[in-house]
Amino acid sequence: MTHETLIQLLTLLPLAFATGAINAAVGGGGLIQVPGMYAILPSFLPAQIMGTDKLASIFGHATSMRQYALKMSLPWRLVLLTSAAAFVGALSGVSIMYLVPATWMKPIVIVILIVMLVYTWFKPQFGTQDANKPITRNDLYKGLVLGFVIGFYDGFVGPGTGSFLLFLFVRFFHFDFLKATACAKVVNFGTNFAALAFLVPAGMVVYSFAIPMGIAGVLGALVGSRLAMKGGNHWIRRLFLILAVSLLAKLVWETVRPWL
């Protein structure tokens, strides 16, 4: 490892820790890690950035998923079915990543984000209580559709997937924010695994960066999941709003920048 590579890695490790913590607590850690990797690793191809980020992130997702599963009772039938659909969706998304520019999808995502933010902001009780409703067959169908769509987004575009999952689990299944966060970790693990199934054989993972970053992400996930369980739904709601606003600002800037 060269001196320059070592400096790059040491710069990325704190970002990976923060990403693991934020992903574990509410999702959206890619807003930190991915731009950081583009800035610190300018010679990397976009697919290498994505592959390295996904492998590093999957360590943290697995850790936070385990932490939540040990402390909470999750609707595993719904979550695993949604994860399977998300896996297929992510494979579809990442397979056309090279063929279709992701920029055409950004205006749609911006509109969805605005709706999501307005809805959450003007409903202070949104996600503060778990309805504890039994999972129905209709819920399973919704899980299949939502899993595929969000998986496709993660494979094709990426940033903010965890936040979208969090909102959808609260909105469509009436979970509280904490339970929705736990469920989102399982689905997010599936989408990352699907992307890696495409990117690893293509040689798009730089292991000398991904593995140390993954270890830092594990430590971050331990901290983030414990903070989420300790802080509760109101704390997660505030963090969710902050991250959603950050993602909206990022996408709007990327959309209008070419016109300036």
Automatic annotation (TrEMBL):
Per UniProt, subcellular location reads as: Cell membrane
Q: Where are the transmembrane segments?
A: 74-98, 104-122, 143-173, 193-223, 235-253
Question: InterPro entries, alphabetically?
Answer: TM_pro_TauE-like (IPR002781), TSUP (IPR052017)
Keywords assigned by UniProt, alphabetized: Cell membrane, Membrane, Transmembrane, Transmembrane helix, Transport
Q: How does the UniProt record describe the way this protein sits in the membrane? A: Multi-pass membrane protein
Asked if the Swiss-Prot or TrEMBL record annotates the protein with the keyword Metal-binding, the reply is no
Instruction: Please indicate if the UniProt record lists Cell membrane as a keyword.
Output: yes
Using the record, list the residue span of the signal peptide; answer none if the entry has no such feature.
none
Return the similarity comment. Belongs to the 4-toluene sulfonate uptake permease (TSUP) (TC 2.A.102) family.
Can you say what this protein is called? Probable membrane transporter protein
Origin organism is: Uliginosibacterium silvisoli
